[in-house]
TrEMBL record:
The lineage of its organism: Bacteria, Bacillati, Cyanobacteriota, Cyanophyceae, Oscillatoriophycideae. Residues 6-121 form the Tetrahydrofolate dehydrogenase/cyclohydrolase catalytic domain. NADP(+) binds at residues 166-168, 232. Belongs to the tetrahydrofolate dehydrogenase/cyclohydrolase family. The keyword Transport does not apply. Keywords: Amino-acid biosynthesis, Histidine biosynthesis, Hydrolase, Methionine biosynthesis, Multifunctional enzyme, NADP, One-carbon metabolism, Oxidoreductase, Purine biosynthesis. Pfam families: THF_DHG_CYH, THF_DHG_CYH_C. This is Bifunctional protein FolD.
Length: 287
């Protein structure tokens, strides 16, 4: 039997519709719409597409965009000042710096500059600390999207073995903490892990977040496992046409897994939905 699809695209649309309603209710009370500022530096085409996507999603939900696009040669000091102004700007509830930044700019120090209560990406050390402590706070969007998608499909997590492949501060580490908070028994694998297949075959819930096409093959998956593919990899065929694939060999793994996320249409749209949810959450704290 084939795996059931965890439809991130459909759930993202549902979340956006709910957020739109929440924004409509809150706007008269707060006296202004929510605001999100996305800072982009340079001309990375993939980043530009992501930013456009985020701004379009904001518009649908009724969030005002305060996007700013800077040339590649913008200095660290200029960006720091922009963030300080946005921190003080009462119309702005969320600030995010689109990564990667051009060489020579230090993204970590900029991230530290953002007011933790406006940290729409949930990556400021204060918010990561809140996650570690289990306190309420802004959560990193991609891992929060993974958790929300599993919640929607009522995937049981308590006592289950979860394996996260990838240990980045953006995805792997915060996701492992969220799974732990949901009472899963969590293993984190990475590029130095030995016998990856042995580790992943043990997983009731397997999350791939490595950025390596075809990393997860059918023989690495336990029958009926929940397989979540966070990876986004661009592949170009001989004719020069490119498309996006995940880290999981979808066609083979779907014959083994119980549930699986597609790429595209899985965690990508969930990430955007959770970014909007974070912005609306910060906004709702002001009522
Ligand atoms: P990073 O490159 O920061 O981290 C990748 C992680 O995967 C590292 O921990 C690395 O290990 C590990 N890894 C790499 N190769 C292997 C391997 N062969 N076996 C086991 N582990 C491996 O990437 P991100 O965490 O930022 O992103 C991961 C993927 O998710 C990317 O494809 C990215 O595009 C995608 N992504 C998708 C999002 C979405 O919205 N769907 C949002 C964010 C990211 P080590 O630490 O040892 O180097």
């Amino acid at each position: 039997m084939e795996a059931k699809i965890l439809d991130g695209k459909a759930l993202a649309q549902k979340i956006q519709a709910e957020l739109k309603q929440q924004v409509e209710e809150l706007t008269p009370k707060i006296g202004r719409p929510p605001g999100l500022a996305v800072l982009m530096v340079g001309d990375n085409p993939a980043s530009a597409a992501y930013v456009r996507n985020k701004e379009r999603a904001c518009e649908k939900v009724g969030i005002a965009s305060f996007g700013k696009h800077f040339p590649t040669e913008t200095s660290q000091e200029e960006l720091k000042q922009v963030i300080e102004e946005l921190n003080k700007d009462d119309r702005v509830d969320g600030i995010l710096v689109q990564l990667p930044l051009p060489d020579g700019l230090d993204s970590v120090s900029l991230l530290h500059q953002i007011d933790p209560d406006k940290d729409a990406d949930g990556l400021h050390p204060v918010n990561l600390g809140r996650l570690v402590r289990g306190e309420p706070g802004l959560r990193s969007c991609t891992p929060a999207g993974v958790m929300r998608l599993m919640e929607e499909y009522q995937i049981p997590l308590r006592g289950k073995k979860a394996v996260v492949v990838g240990r980045s501060i953006l995805v792997g580490k915060p996701l492992a903490l969220m799974l732990l908070a949901a009472d899963a028994t969590v293993t984190i694998a990475h590029s130095r892990s030995q016998n990856l297949g042995e580790i992943t075959r043990d997983a009731d819930i397997l999350v791939a977040a490595a950025g390596r096409k075809d990393l997860i093959t059918a023989d690495m998956v336990k029958p009926e496992a929940i397989v979540i593919d966070v990876g986004i990899n661009k592949v170009t065929d001989e004719a020069g046409n490119s498309r996006l694939v995940g880290d999981v060999n979808f066609d083979a793994v779907k014959t083994v897994a119980g549930y699986i996320t597609p790429v595209p249409g899985g965690i990508g749209p969930m990430t955007v939905a959770l970014l909007l949810a974070n912005t609306v959450w910060s906004y709702s704290q002001k009522k």
